[in-house]
Amino acid sequence: MSIAAPVTTPDDEAQLVEAVADAGARTVPLAIAGGATRLGLGRPMQTAESLSTANLTGITLYEPAELVISARAGTPLAEIETTLAAQNQRLGFEPVDHRRLFGSQGTPTIGAVAAANVSGPRRIQVGAARDSLIGLRAVTGAGALIKSGGRVMKNVTGYDLVKFLAGSYGTLSVLSEVTFKVQPSPETEVTLVLNGLDDDRAVEALSTALGSPFSVTGAAHLPAGDGDVARTLIRLEGFADSVDERMKDLVALLAPYGATESLDADATRTLWRAVGDLEALGAPDDAAVWKVSVKPSDGPAIAAAARAAFACRVVYDWGGGLVWIATETGGFDAGAAVIRDAIAPLGGHATLVKASDAVRLATDVFQPLAPPLMDLTRKLKARFDPAGILNPGRMYAGV
Amino acid sequence: MTHIAMPAIDEAVIGRRDEIVAGLVAILGAEHVIATEDERRAYETDALTAYRAVPLAVVLPGSTEEVSKVLAFLNGTGAKVIARGAGTSLSGGALPSEDAVVLGLARLNRIVDIDYANRVARVQTGVTNVNITNAVAGQGFFYAPDPSSQLACTIGGNIAMNSGGAHCLKYGVTTNNILGLRMVMLDGTIVDIGGSECDAAGYDLLGLVIGSEGQLGVVTEATVRILRAAEGARPMLMGFDSAESAGACVAAIIGSGIIPVAIEYMDRPAIKVCEAFAHAGYPLDVEALLIIEVEGSEAEIADLIARITGIAEAFKPSTLRISQSATESAAIWKGRKSAFGAMGRIADYMCMDGVIPTSRLPEVLSRITAICEGYGLAVANIFHAGDGNLHPLVLYDMNDPDQLEKAELAGGDILKVCVEVGGCLTGEHGVGIEKRELMSEQFTQVDLDQQMQVKSVFDPGWKLNPAKVFPLEGRPAVSA
């Protein structure tokens, strides 16, 4: 999968402004990309040209003692993570690498992490990418260079466009520079594993762990399948003595859920990277993959509804509140009707993260919004991108 | 007496007062419409008491549906609408105008649902901040953002201002702790944004509404995250001979990989006043006092305190005291949390709320002192050191118009310094009327235009709390 040629690749912010303004003047819709590793996420677009932030690179500010880093949007995520690691710091929300899921090449960028609000397993404890995003610079579809937020930890000066633009998938603006709050890396980390629980019991165990005072930073469940026993995973991080003590407390707390085993720091790092990057879902190229966000206690009901209707594999994260469903047999809509009907009485939303172009054209990729919210969405789009040239239709038709 | 200009009052609306009041009474009944001048006067100001205006009327709806009916009715009258929680805003966020109806949330004070398994609570927005924690404390849970005014302030006001507090260094501010909102638009439409799940669908309207200072709609219910409290917490006091040493100590602690749950800073004038009020045992012979709180199990607390005191030694604290009892911990926090009230006993003050990069702390503190001295005013500094959120209290005499003006000028100069060094005008109090005209120090007109475009989507006629946030110059033309 690649973006539509010709591709404009500005070398600096001024050129970015110029490129967007030029496309606006010609009313030419643009596909917006960073490293082009997540192009399969969203509705297929009809764009004649593309705009890439891949050349807008470089860390512009990093103050370890202030827990803050700024970088131009096209900066490779790997460069950010390496730079932080040298100071024993990290992005707390644990951004997911989508290359495995989409079979894409390319280099994930920090701008895309913000634009798609990409968060991993630690989201359950430290919040999403948008919660760590404290400042940005962006070019609207009207060619206006705007900034919001800044580089300090607390900032309520004016409307919080930082949050609003995070997760807007390049449909409102092209990000030029982003600033994230970072956190210290822990001295060590361990995983407690509960074996053989069914989904309901597993989510109950995860809720117990997350409702404990022991600062759980990962809470996932991999149901049984293909001869593998179900595994329920709980991660602790921190200073070694503290982790040891909390581990003992947690084992005692979770005794009613059966025998436990524990994984050391190395195994824990590998495991949670695999959980975040969806290795356990084992999705082959032709699978459709759903990301369902519900109250944790509703997770098993959604999975049960899907399993009753079609063959699928399920992985739970975020304490059960994030349900990944992969299927090759969900029908023409990849199971959309079944999944969304199951969600409707409970509350929550489902995103068709991956499917063929044909299915994503015929099915709502993002959760359909209630009419008043859709109305606001369209009006806001018009105020940021009046000519409709930025990633048109990627989230919703006409948006 | 006021120095901050207000938008023109719509005399035609005032002329229709009887008719508007009658319409409100028809919706809510006379007992929930406040129409007499004496009673309306109670709503003329908030915690920025230098500014006052008696509103056209005050309504106290009892449900989302009543809020919807009231707004749909008012939308046709031309009256402005000011939503009000507890009226504790320090930036004039709840200040009314003579042509505005105040929509008080006081009767929306019910906790609707508590769901421990999913760690969320559904509350009406007139519930006070502390009452959310009180409702879940029995199960060991709490609601994290804890503004100093938490005994009085409402979650509705917190949502409007995206409030923080002393403990947001670890747990984030309001926007990081809200999963869903029910909001009534000016035309009466009720919208549900988000829910009880993570990451609401579509554009992040939660992020847009939280911190929008009551300018986009009236929020009547919220789903908040509740967290299991740590097993224990303990504050410690560290006194230093200079702001430089205290600031460097804070940087070293954070740089070492420890994020204390709170790091609070007081300078000498603030210590003196707070100690006189709270008898917390603060040292009186230091230039800078840090209150550092850590949490966890007994063993974790002991370990963290040992690490922090080890780091602090390099900066030669003249006092280092670890709380030995729950009583002592409570006294230490009482001194800090009642600081604004204690200061109010000795002088009137303007409480500023700028944020700076923490590495610029010593430099900025000395510039603040110099600015205030330049106007012949005293200043006391009390703030959240871990995140650089300063609260200089500029002391003045409210009965002296000359001093009020000087205090406002000094406050403006201080905030300009905050922006100049890479920070911002307000970290948790909001822009309100107080910092409205300073917005152009931080933002270009292009930045502000984009924000105002958002307001115009939600409120095309600019009727919701319109005097706030944006400079009066450069606003879009709206038809009445």
UniProtKB/TrEMBL annotation, chain A:
InterPro entries: FAD-bd_PCMH, FAD-bd_PCMH-like_sf, FAD-bd_PCMH_sub2, FAD-linked_Oxase-like_C, Oxid_FAD_bind_N. SUPFAM superfamilies: FAD-binding/transporter-associated domain-like, FAD-linked oxidases, C-terminal domain. Gene3D superfamilies: 3.30.465.10. It comes from Bauldia litoralis. This is Glycolate oxidase FAD binding subunit. Residues 1-185 form the FAD-binding PCMH-type domain. GO terms for molecular function: catalytic activity; FAD binding. PANTHER family: D-LACTATE DEHYDROGENASE, GLYCOLATE OXIDASE SUBUNIT GLCE. Keywords: FAD, Flavoprotein.
TrEMBL record, chain B:
The keyword Transmembrane does not apply. Its cofactor is FAD. The keyword Oxidoreductase applies. PROSITE patterns: FAD_PCMH. InterPro entries: FAD-bd_oxidored_4_C, FAD-bd_PCMH, FAD-bd_PCMH-like_sf, FAD-bd_PCMH_sub2, FAD-linked_Oxase-like_C, FAD-linked_OxidoTrans_Type4, Oxid_FAD_bind_N, Vanillyl_alc_oxidase_C-sub2. GO terms for molecular function: FAD binding; oxidoreductase activity. Keywords: FAD, Flavoprotein, Oxidoreductase. Residues 51-229 form the FAD-binding PCMH-type domain. This is Glycolate oxidase. The lineage of its organism: Bacteria, Pseudomonadati, Pseudomonadota, Alphaproteobacteria, Hyphomicrobiales.
